């Protein structure tokens, strides 16, 4: 078993990026974000690459950002530098990539794990998967997800998820437009394989143009909103009394006491 945060496998035109921090519930750290970005660029430069699949090992798809790394900063400048160097360029590259990106989701997707899915093009989840934005329990808020939602239905789902912090089932997420397919637990790999095989038969340029025009509002407006939200998150939320208390309580494994 490799100790890399993201394991890459290539099979014909398929490039699979596997989140590989099961002991941390596949929480995203700086290496995770930079690896996704680097491998996406590498795939785009290879004319044989046609599809990117993001999946994970272990019982949890992704527990969000690694809070011990991504929410504890000496100054707002350090916080902004972290997200500007990791999260923002990776999500922008996903939105702009000419390659279709498929998410293969099992178990729980939380926080930034849900936000990562927001920038995938096709999200296939097992029936037992759950989607949750628990940030408000830490005195924080789901900056990327709330900032990047475009349609009315997804906007309302984003608000409900972020305000209540309660999880959505895969079926509820499908009804809200957060994922595109729900399959039985035993059928995930097969369904992803079928979608990949179908995409392999499509014209590369046609796929790229379809994605580019479909993502125009996300690129022109959504990413701007994400940057604005992250800037406020870094300058205010992380260093607010509630933000400090929430993160401290999480690390100390106790209930927070908010002001």
From TrEMBL:
Signal peptide: none annotated. Coiled coil: none annotated. GO terms for molecular function: catalytic activity. It holds the Pfam family ECH_1. Belongs to the enoyl-CoA hydratase/isomerase family. This is Enoyl-CoA hydratase.
């Amino acid at each position: 078993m490799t100790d890399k945060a993201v394991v890459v496998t290539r099979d014909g035109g398929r490039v699979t990026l596997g989140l590989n921090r099961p002991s941390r519930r596949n929480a995203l750290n700086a290496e995770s974000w930079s690896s996704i970005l680097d491998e996406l660029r590498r795939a785009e430069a290879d004319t044989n690459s046609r599809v990117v699949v993001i999946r994970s090992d272990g019982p949890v798809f992704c527990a969000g950002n690694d809070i011990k790394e991504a929410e504890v900063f000496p100054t707002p400048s350090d916080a902004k530098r972290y997200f500007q160097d990791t999260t923002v360029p990776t999500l922008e590259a996903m939105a702009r990539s000419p390659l279709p990106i498929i998410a293969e989701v099992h178990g729980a997707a939380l926080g930034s794990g849900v936000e990562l899915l927001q920038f995938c093009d096709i999200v296939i989840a097992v029936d037992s998967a759950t989607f949750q934005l628990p940030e408000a329990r830490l005195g924080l808020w789901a900056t990327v997800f709330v900032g990047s939602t475009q349609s009315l239905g997804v906007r309302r789902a984003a608000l409900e998820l972020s305000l209540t912090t309660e999880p959505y089932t895969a079926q509820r997420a499908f009804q809200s437009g957060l994922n595109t397919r729900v399959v039985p637990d035993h059928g995930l790999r097969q369904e992803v394989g079928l979608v990949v095989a179908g995409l392999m038969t499509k014209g590369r340029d046609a796929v790229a143009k379809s994605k580019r025009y479909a993502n125009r509002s996300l690129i022109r407006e959504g990413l701007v909103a994400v940057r604005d939200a992250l800037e406020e998150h870094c300058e205010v939320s992380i260093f607010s009394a509630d933000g400090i208390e929430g993160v401290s309580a999480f690390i100390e494994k106790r209930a927070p006491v908010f002001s």
